[in-house]
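Q: Given only this backbone (138 positions), what sequence would you predict?
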């Protein structure tokens, strides 16, 4: 099963280029007049996944995404198996209030990790690494 996880900056760049191509005005270095904290937008797929006609509901989770080269995984005994395997890997860990998804793409020698956790479990801005690891093992 092939997988593709792009750099977020590349996706943003392509989106901006396409918007400019369509003539959408883009203003940088300007103060924000206002914003909306709309909880997503309803999509047709929601009804198929949930078998309900209602709008999507908030999971009250925050999500984090990171992408990094496989050599960083090889340096740790906890993760080296993912860096040395000859095939792509897709792993999911589900915890009490923390979930993680790891996608390893050997063709480009990189991995992408998605982590979610309940909003009320948020860390202070400068969390200690040992605290983050402890929560991820919970």
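A: Predicted residues:
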């Amino acid at each position: 099963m092939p997988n593709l996880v792009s750099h977020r900056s590349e996706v943003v760049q392509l989106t901006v280029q396409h918007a400019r191509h369509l003539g959408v005005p883009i203003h940088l270095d300007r103060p924000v007049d206002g914003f909306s904290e709309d909880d997503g937008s309803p999509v047709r797929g929601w009804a198929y996944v949930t078998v309900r006609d209602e709008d999507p509901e908030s999971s009250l989770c925050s999500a984090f995404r990171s992408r990094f080269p496989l050599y960083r995984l090889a340096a740790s005994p906890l993760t080296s198996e993912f860096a040395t395997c000859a095939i792509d890997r897709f792993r999911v860990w589900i915890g009490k209030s923390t979930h993680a998804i790891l996608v390893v793409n050997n063709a480009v020698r990189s991995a992408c990790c998605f982590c979610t956790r309940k909003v009320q479990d948020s860390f202070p801005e400068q969390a200690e690494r040992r605290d983050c690891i402890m929560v991820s093992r919970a």
